[in-house]
């Protein structure tokens, strides 16, 4: 019985196949675009190279066993780098994780095949053995793909800090060392046969994979926490701007009240030069306040008036047809964030348009059926790429600062009030449409 359950070493060809499949899984998960035929061809070439390296490593003396492993791991690194072109931190993390996946894949599949050999000898023919190994590999890879095929883990796999990258490398080394301890202590009473050794190796590799997935979930939760802090800060900032705008509007009203008294003074002034000077001064003052916008909603009026004043000052043509009463049910802070963030993005885009005649922003707040339509469009000369989340990818080069939270907050507002957010960029017009139910 003991002899029948003895497990031979994993053939090098199966180890190479496990490494190729694990590398392919990593490439599929971290690439944003569809894999082209040229990439598949390159991946095939690297796969052939993996088989050759494993064959050569099998010829090494036992003293150079570790060297052979390092060479194969480095080849996996080159495979992922050549087919994905990611940052060095992402590559280190993915290679470490891919190596553990390959170890788990090879050990678990080989164990299953060997146990089937024990219970059904006819399956142990070379052809059926190869087919069975490939089927088990495919099933495990498919399950791992389904496990990681979501936005949470995709973000966690693409946003790797230097600390996380080096931690993953240390974890991979510790998992590999622990999983192979059994081969060094075969005389131990608990590990006195190859079946126990392979069982230990498979379980340790599985624990290593679980450790990687736990870290990825923690990384994503940390991202969500920071995301929430940034959006709350943006909500507060827009609300504080609204408070400042409202105070400014009150100052304007007082200023117009003072103009009445100044007109009385001008009427009594006998000196024509002084009277003309007063009149010119009044004209300058009035010109500053000609941006007044009335929509029927005091919050909307204040924000749009200030944004319109900014547009006038910077030669941006801002047209607005808005029934502000349709937005009465939206919370003040949410409304400030919606108006402030959407208009700030549009104004920033127009500031990059060189032709003043093409600096155009158009806002419409209308009703259609039982829906409120908040439509904002602006002319743009830049092509905007939309990410997998439906939001534009940032064009800012300074990635140390948070970007894109304005549109994320608008989408959050849409979900909060049971609506939808649609963003398009077509024929030089960037368009944001927010649909909200009236009820």
From TrEMBL:
InterPro entries, sorted: HATPase_C_sf, NatK-like_C
Keywords recorded for this protein, A-Z: Cell cycle, Cell division, Membrane, Transmembrane, Transmembrane helix
GO biological process terms on file: cell division
TM annotation in the entry: 37-56, 62-81, 101-121, 127-147, 168-185, 197-214
Protein name: Cell division protein FtsB
Pfam families: HATPase_c_5
Domain Sensor histidine kinase NatK-like C-terminal: residue ranges: 331-437
């Amino acid at each position: 019985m003991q002899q029948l359950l003895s497990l031979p070493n994993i053939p090098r060809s199966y180890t190479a196949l496990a490494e190729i499949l694990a590398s392919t899984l990593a490439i599929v998960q971290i690439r944003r675009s569809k894999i082209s035929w040229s990439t598949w061809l390159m991946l095939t070439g690297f796969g052939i190279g993996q088989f050759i390296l494993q064959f050569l490593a099998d010829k090494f003396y036992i003293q150079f066993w570790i060297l052979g492993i390092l060479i194969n791991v480095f080849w996996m690194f080159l495979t992922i780098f050549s087919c994905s072109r990611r940052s060095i931190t992402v590559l280190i993390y993915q290679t470490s994780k891919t190596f553990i996946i390959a170890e788990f894949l090879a050990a678990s599949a080989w164990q299953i095949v060997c146990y089937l050999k024990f219970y059904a000898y006819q399956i142990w023919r070379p052809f059926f053995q190869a087919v069975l190994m490939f089927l088990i590999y495919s099933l495990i890879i498919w399950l791992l793909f389904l496990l990681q095929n979501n936005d949470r883990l995709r973000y966690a796999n693409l946003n790797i800090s230097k600390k996380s990258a080096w931690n993953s490398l240390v974890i991979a080394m510790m998992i590999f060392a622990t999983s192979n301890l059994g081969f060094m202590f075969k005389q131990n009473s608990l590990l006195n046969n190859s079946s126990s050794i392979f069982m230990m190796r498979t379980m340790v590799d599985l624990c290593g994979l679980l450790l990687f997935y736990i870290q990825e979930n923690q990384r994503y939760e940390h991202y969500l926490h920071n995301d929430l802090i940034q959006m709350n800060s943006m909500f507060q900032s827009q609300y504080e701007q609204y408070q400042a705008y409202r105070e400014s509007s009150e100052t304007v009203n007082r200023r117009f009240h003072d103009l009445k008294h100044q007109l009385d003074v001008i009427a009594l002034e006998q000196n024509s030069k002084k009277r003309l000077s007063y009149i010119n001064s009044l004209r300058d003052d009035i010109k500053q306040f000609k941006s007044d916008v009335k929509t029927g909603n005091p919050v909307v009026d204040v924000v749009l008036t200030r944004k319109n004043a900014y547009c006038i000052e910077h030669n941006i043509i801002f047209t607005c047809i808005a029934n502000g009463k349709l937005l009465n049910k939206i919370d003040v802070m949410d409304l400030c964030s919606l108006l402030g963030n959407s208009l700030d993005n549009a104004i920033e885009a127009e500031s990059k348009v060189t032709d003043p005649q093409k600096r155009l922003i158009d806002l419409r707040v209308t009703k259609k059926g039982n829906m409120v339509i908040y439509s904002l469009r602006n002319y743009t000369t830049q092509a905007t790429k939309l990410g997998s989340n439906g939001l534009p990818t940032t064009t800012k080069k300074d990635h140390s600062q948070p970007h894109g939270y304005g549109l994320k907050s608008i989408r959050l507002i849409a979900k909060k009030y049971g609506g939808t957010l649609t963003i398009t960029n077509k024929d030089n017009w960037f368009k944001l449409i927010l649909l909200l139910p009236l009820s």
